[in-house]
Amino acid sequence: MTSITKISHPYYYLLKAMRPHHWVKNLVVFAAPLFALQLDATSVLLASVAFIVFSLTASSFYLINDVADVKADRQHPIKCKRPIAAGLVPVPVALLTAVTCLAGSLLISFSITPWLGISVGTYALVQTGYNLGLKHEPIIDILCISAGFVLRALGGAAATAVPVSDWFVLCVGLLALYLGIEKRKAELKSLGSKGTTRRVLKQYTLPWLNRMESVVTASTLMSYSLWAIDEAKSHWMLATIPFVTYGIFKYQALSEQGEGEAPEITLFKSTQLFLTLLLWALTSLLILSLS
Length: 291
Fold this sequence. Notes:
The chain is an all-alpha fold. The protein has 12 helices and no strands.
């Protein structure tokens, strides 16, 4: 029993350092085939592969970032508990895993279709720039977050050979931009500009983020509404606008309380938000399947 526990510990901590709870963000790869109702076994399998390669790519950068920040993390009251900072995962093991995950993701992606490989490669370049310094630049840091979601959506479309419209890309991009703004707003409210090691927060102010939030919120709702009118397969998709409206404003309310730092956690923490997303998805699928 003891020997099994000892063997399992390194792998457990390595997996924890890869932050699998963040992989839920990569479910956006299913957006294009979902709205195209291309949910046959082949498409689901290919979208699942896209999900895996984006997850492994993201995890490789989590590992690299934790290695780069290991000295600072060890001085932080919370980050010092991260597996690499705590010495539970050796730095060479973390780096080897990161390189293996990144190389494997690129090889698999290009073997599926060149466009998936390009999407994953571009995502990797964005992450590289983000970790090298763009994360410290206000506005640009949020644009990088938004670009990551758009590239995931395009990667899922490429993997399943589903054509996407300009409205689809615009909706995904604006929604991701909205989530990025809410993330910074929640961090600023809960931690303050001096209560965190995230340098970029010192350059943001709540009034500025509130103005950005107003513009992007209106743009997101308008782009989704216009998509529902002009691009959706059925005008009945207009019935889903109330779900989107409530979800966006509910998320704003949560960020006002400092709870919007991590969308993947906030989504499951808020029962109302989760049910809204579920009802929106079920209603959309029903309308699209009957159109």
